[in-house]
């Protein structure tokens, strides 16, 4: 134990005597660790965001999509003509675990108002009931109802961002918008959703909801892009999935050309994607840490070679190979640990500044901090062991003769 | 007591082998002051290194106080160097960038002896060599003679029985050299066994015994 304290003192004074060199080799590791920790916290931030976005959609939701996600096609398997029909929707409505169901289709096109136009809004034809099923709350006005469907009414409910883009600060209610050359009256506006982020699903604030019958009429195609279901309770989510799959398989003559996903399934699928993404980012960052580590190894090799005589002297007065090894290993660990601490200070400061400007929340993550500090020590050991071993193996007489 | 029995030390450089020491045997009693004389390349330093446990003989053995050095593993040999002997070198071999006091303390970092107050022990030997006012100075702020005194203080700090000095005056002017040599004579009077390698006949004459080496063999002892 005493030798650790002594080694620490020796290492500090030796590092201090070569400030510029010490500083530069620390810098390399700081950059490496900072890259890893920031990429990691961005990845974790995105994951949290996606998870909360999915949970925000509503509770006990089950989504039916065209195409088979399980068979490796991922979400792209749903691209193309939909395999879901109105008959499917009617069948699903009969299953016991269902509380509520809506079907939806997408309309492509630019939305115009008399003030502005926006091509980036998501025109979402939905059967009545979306408000009850999802967590989308109205800030004013009303949702579409069955009467609207029957009349194929030209009405629309705007997401908060859609409302701002089309009308600025003006009150959107009872205003007229134009979709595919047809005039629609705005009957409702949604509350702003905290999370703007969307992953495969709609950006909820950019929604322009219209009755699905109306959507079918103006596009001329009776497509169902998605059926949104709500189970009676969290316990019945799984049974709802099974019931729906059974009904649909029957309708589709045994061909599984659709997917039934709960929110957990969505989290799982997206989680897999994010894991790959995180691993990719981490390996890129690992390269920068590797470069930093090689810098440490290089500087330690130089240091060992320069201090050959010192090693000889220490051995002559009684240092064993083991204590020399510890001395140099501690020196490289100190280098990388200081780098780790500096990186974490920059990380903490950087995160508090960046979180004000970032489009998604970046959180200070204690896990990232601990991991980074642990990593910095590991780098010191991995890249310090070879030089330290070299130092410990030096022959004292040769070392004492070294000029 | 130091016993050197039929010690052979061979160095290989490429194809050629070179016998630095050739079947050297000698005995040095505890408390002796022995000067080892000889031309450069005669094997004086090699003999010194072997006795000090810095190196293993190729064959033969060295027994010091009934401990056979040739049978010691590296770790044990390091302990022997730390506790039994103190080295003084021609080129001082002090740690640059480290204060005189810390240089003297260095052997105490590695000692297994317990209960030593490093600072007071170092202070004691620094006073003994007359450098109590230069504790904070670094080697490059000291004269050659002062540096060699620091080296002697370092050799003494762990109370070794044997002082091994390899041409301790070789890098000093004759007056300073004599002072350093006298310091070794004093240490011998205090009971230390002292071995000094030297070129200087005059200084060697102060020793109680002189051993002459030539081409790795003892010619007179």
- Radius of gyration of chain A from CA coordinates: 31 Å
Say which CATH homologous superfamily of chain B is assigned.
P-loop containing nucleotide triphosphate hydrolases
Following the backbone from N to C, one meets helices and strands of chain B in this order, namely EEEHEEHEHHHEHEHEE
Shape of chain B: globular
For the sheet with most strands of chain A, the description reads:
12 strands, mixed
* Count of DSSP strands of chain A: 12
- Termini Cα gap of chain A: 33 Å
Count helical runs of chain B.
7
Question: What's the number of domains of chain B?
Answer: 1
The proportion of residues forming helix of chain A, as a percent range, comes to 40-55%
Question: What is the element layout, followed by pairings?
Answer:
The complex is a heterodimer of chains A (403) and B (221).
Chain A: H1 2-16, H2 19-56, E1 61-66, H3 86-92, E2 98-107, E3 111-113, E4 117-118, E5 122-126, H4 130-133, E6 138-141, H5 146-151, E7 155-158, H6 160-167, E8 176-179, E9 182-190, E10 207-211, H7 212-219, E11 226-231, H8 237-251, E12 258-262, H9 263-306, H10 308-316, H11 321-354, H12 366-392, H13 396-401
Parallel strand pairs in A: 5-10, 7-9
Antiparallel strand pairs in A: 1-11, 1-12, 2-5, 2-11, 3-4, 3-8, 6-9, 7-10, 8-9
Helix pairs in contact in A: 1-11, 2-9, 2-11, 2-12, 3-8, 9-11, 9-12, 11-12
Chain B: E1 2-13, E2 16-28, E3 33-37, H1 44-51, E4 59-64, E5 67-68, H2 74-83, E6 85-88, H3 100-109, H4 118-128, H5 144-156, E7 162-166, H6 174-189, E8 193-198, H7 201-204, E9 209-214, E10 217-220
Parallel strand pairs in B: 3-8, 3-9, 6-7, 7-8
Antiparallel strand pairs in B: 1-2, 1-4, 4-5, 9-10
Provide the descriptors you would attach to this structure in a database record.
heterodimer, A: 403 residues, alpha+beta, twelve-stranded mixed beta sheet, 13 helices, 55% helix, elongated, B: 221 residues, alpha/beta, Rossmann fold, six-stranded mixed beta sheet, four-stranded antiparallel beta sheet, 7 helices
